[in-house]
Amino acid sequence: MKPRFIARVxxxxxxxxxxxxxxxxxxxxxxxxxxxxxxxxxxxxxSKPESRIFSRGGIFFENRGAEPFKAATLNACFIVALQxxxxxxxxxxxxxxxxxxxxxxxxFLERAGKKDDPYEEIxxxxxxxxxxxxxxxxxxxxxxxxxxxxxxxxxxLASHAVGLLGFKGDELGGRYGLERYYExxxxxxxAEGYTNFFAEIFTNIKKTIFEGEELQGDVYTSLExxxxxxxxxxxxxINKKWSSEMSGGIVMDPKTGEIVAMAxxxxxxxxxxxxxxxxxxxxxxxxxxxxxxxIIKPLTIAAGIDAxxxxxKTTYKDEGFLVLNTARIANYDGVGRGVVDMxxxxxxxxxxxxxxxxxxxxxxxxxxxxxxxxxxxxxxxDLPNETRGLIQNLDSTRDIEYATAxxxxxxxxxxxxxxxxxxTLANGGVLPHPHLGKEIQYDIGTSKEISFPxxxxxxxxxxxxxxxxxxxxxxxxxxxxxxxxxxxxxxAAKTGTAQIAKPESSGYYEDxxxxxxxxxxxxxxxxxxxxxxxxxxxxxxxASETLTQSFSDITxxxxxxYEIPPDR
Length: 568
Prior knowledge:
Layout: H1 2-33, H2 35-43, E1 59-62, E2 69-82, H3 90-98, H4 105-112, E3 120-126, H5 128-137, E4 142-151, H6 159-162, E5 165-168, E6 171-174, H7 177-181, H8 183-186, H9 197-210, E7 217-224, H10 225-242, E8 246-252, E9 259-265, H11 284-287, H12 297-306, E10 315-318, E11 321-324, E12 327-330, E13 338-341, H13 342-347, H14 351-361, H15 363-372, H16 399-405, H17 415-423, E14 437-442, E15 447-449, H18 461-478, E16 492-501, E17 508-521, E18 528-535, H19 543-546, H20 548-561
Helix pairs in contact: 3-4, 10-20, 12-14, 12-18
């Protein structure tokens, strides 16, 4: 009997310790983490007939050297409601309220006419100033109740990543971005102004341990406030200077896949999005595919080196064009350069050179490398509506499709797929897992690190080191004739210019291009990879003209801001 008694005591002790830890965590959460929020509840001047007040978890950005930035939070707002049976002159009441809060006369009179209904809301998300103005009217049958509303303090900042809160029918929830992806964590189901403290503790334990439900909490991301600001500033400058249809960018740690900044221009303000075309809310960095052009060439060179069919010094005779399956492909300028090596192929961005690499690899082996890079697969990023690349040409029986794919035409990828694939050149050949979430801090006081496993090894480490050396040479000697070479930092980079396909017919526009740019630094131990693109810039030919300076500016900002030591 004694061993059984001891086991029971130990079990009860375990339960008591568990309860104490949860209780302490809850007290810490109530008094410290969410003290301001509960203080607002306790001090509110008005109570709705039903005690439930809107609540939702927050979304936070990193803010180097300071407190995390609240990218999505809650703010005090008010509801104006009617007691119809106490309104003697609805017309007069409407005129007075309409002078403070514009409201359609027909809607007001219809709700004021429901004499058997004790509560009819006529306005939500009212500011404290306007709420005070309504109260000052002292109208019989008009009530003002405190509530809380979703607030995005950064306004347009990272709006495509953060997303927004909105209605789908009668259901309010996250509709885009992190708001939607982490809906189960952020949503506060049956949120109430007053909840039995111990009941809430045991309810959360029950949900987590016995029912396996996701606990409710706040989402902390890897997005960094100042880096996000700077990226968005540069994208706005690109769009304005070149009258582009759209520009986008991603800054990521190529080893961990943590996204430090991601943005699209034009953008939107989730605080006031009524009237916007819904297409502006979608995130083209994960939802749209593009033919990326010559930034794909380093991947082709890497495949050739990795398979042992070429080295950086391998040569071929460049005639300036090729004819495959009766189709003609040519270098960007149509010029042949005679016998050149693979370094020149990257430095001069020769289409015929990467087509030569494919001929040495063979179509099947070339396709195997690109499929191993998962260019036709979702990355699994923690954002909704991710689509996958279009790489059907890598299953073709014709040589021409493989040749064009080698320089980024005829296959299309999302920007996030592209960044993931290019990151293999910066991290020793491994596919990273791009993501924004870093940690969830639960309402009960516990937390969970959001982790993602690394992907497969696509290239050998020595292969990527060689391609990196080649890309550093591109920056030091070829890009704008070496004018952006950084004497203290090794930077690996490549530009891309791709024709834009006609959406409703075969072929490409003659005068519409997508410009792209990627680079990483310090090249041999990179902390960041930067990807930029701009769609249909006007009166300019090449990405070296539209994106090089912006890439250089972002690189210098990151070096200074993160105090990255020089490697030269």
